[in-house]
Amino acid sequence: MAASEPYLDVIHGAKVLAVRKKGTGWKVRISENGRERNISAHVLVDATELGDIAASCGVPYHIGMDSRDHTGESIAPENANDVIQDLTYVAILKDYGKGSDMTVPCPEGYDASNYANSATGPASDRVWCDGSEIYKAETGKDVPASYNDADWVEWRLEKLNSFGKRLYDEVKKADPELLVSFSPNPYPWCMQNLMQDWPSWLEGGYVDILSVQCYRETEESYRNTLEEAVGYVKASTDKNVLNPGIYLRSGDAWGSVFASQMLMNREFGTNGEAFFFNEGLGQEVNREVIKAFYTGKAVFPTEF
Question: Is 292 a residue whose pLDDT tops 90?
Answer without folding.
Answer: yes
